[in-house]
Predict the structure of DUF3429 domain-containing protein.
Amino acid sequence: MNDIPRSALILGLAGLIPFLFGAGTLVLPGLAAFGMEVFGPRFIGPYVQIFYGTIILAFMSGVLWGFATKATGTVATTGYGLSVIPALWAFFTVGGGSANALTNLIAGFIGLLALDYLFWRQGLAPRWWMHLRVLLTAIVVACLAVGVVV
């Protein structure tokens, strides 16, 4: 983890807050009551996880698109095509109740990790990229899983 730039690590970890808070409000009634009072119902439990998870998958599509700009020819074309998959996945699969939406987000984040690996193997992502992405993805998937099982 020492090779991850400090700012990328801090911002990546900060980006976990909505996932962690959502999972926390599912298992800690006091935190849920606090969240409901301070932030409202959209920002607790599975609602914040689904809303934020959808946004992050779309954001990560943009990150992959940026990586594709480093390539040329068919590698670039393939990269651009693959980069839109996380956003489209979220758009078309998130719905049908919270358990279904969270399960599809879990699949989306696991699929995103596979795309991260592909771009990284092609030398389009920074050398430290997979260390950061594996850490963040593991925590995101664990948080979303809380929403599926609770």
Q: What stands out?
A: The mean pLDDT is 97. Residues 6-145 form one domain. Helices lie at 6-14, 17-27, 29-38, 45-68, 73-83, 85-93, 98-121, 129-149. The first helix runs from residue 6 to 14.
